[in-house]
Amino acid sequence: MLRYILKRLMYLVFVFFILSIIMFGIFKMVPGDPAKMMIDPELAAKDPAKYQAAYEQAKKELGLDKPIYVQYAIWITKMLTGDFGYSVQYRMPVVNVIKAPMVATLKINIINLILVFAITIPLGIATAVRKNSILDNVVQVVTVVGVSLPMFIIALLGIYFFCVKIQIFPISGMETPGANFTGMAKVFDELKHMALPIIVMTLASLASITRYVRGAMIEVLRMDFIRTARAKGLREKVVIYSHAFRNALIPVVTIMTAWFVGIFGGSIVIESTFLYNGMGQVLITSLRQQDFAVVLTMNMFYVLLSLVGNLVMDLSYMLVDPRVKLS
Known about the structure:
Elements: H1 2-29, H2 34-37, H3 43-46, H4 48-62, H5 68-80, E1 86-87, E2 92-93, H6 94-129, H7 134-148, H8 151-165, H9 184-221, H10 224-231, H11 236-262, H12 268-273, H13 279-288, H14 292-320
Antiparallel strand pairs: 1-2
Helix pairs in contact: 1-14, 6-9, 6-11, 6-13, 7-9, 8-9, 9-11, 10-11, 11-14
């Protein structure tokens, strides 16, 4: 297994560098000039010579005056040492730009991840075991409706019922404007603002994951070894949880790993609807403002996260099912 891990790590490094070259080349081909964004546009009309001098200085500071292969070498070297560049939009280092949104995104998405799988796995197992029962039929109807509704519709319904009609939660933001809460009061205020986005994200995710777990369990429950386990007189709970669910875990592990990778990306729909300053909001704003240093850093982070996630997923397969051999 150690040999397999080392082999995959070498593959990971190779793919990472290939993708970094591709991503860097794509962003260099996108129209726009980051150096011009660092200069006051009114300066061009007031003093063209001064504007040109400032423009050349900005290009030098951003390294845009060098050949593209030199720019890539400088960028990848700095990135590997923790220097992710300078944001022309926020006028600060990229690491300072993404630090707070990353923490905010992790908070809301990790809670959502725990709630979704705490609900969907037991519900999916229950509906699979009681296939065609009243519970199963009700859940199937509800999940079909849930899959059909876009997330922004659920968000708008949540705002209408919980913010307008009942007025339990604030409509948007991450904290109460003008309030100087400290200690536990600040924590509760933050949780109050996080509650509705988490509820909406959880409700929007329940339908598809429940159907996924249910389908995996039904497929396993039809197999011969389940009938054999029941014929041996094993208790139904042992058959379901020790035999059936363990063998149904491989597709569940696949979707859990994909979700884990996705929690760092944030939700553009949720964050835009509730004005929640997370990674999704920063990414879309940076794209609109052509802040390529931020966008490129975030994309390379997602590339690395996906590569590591695939390795963890393969190792998880072996832990879940000993029949899976890594070579």
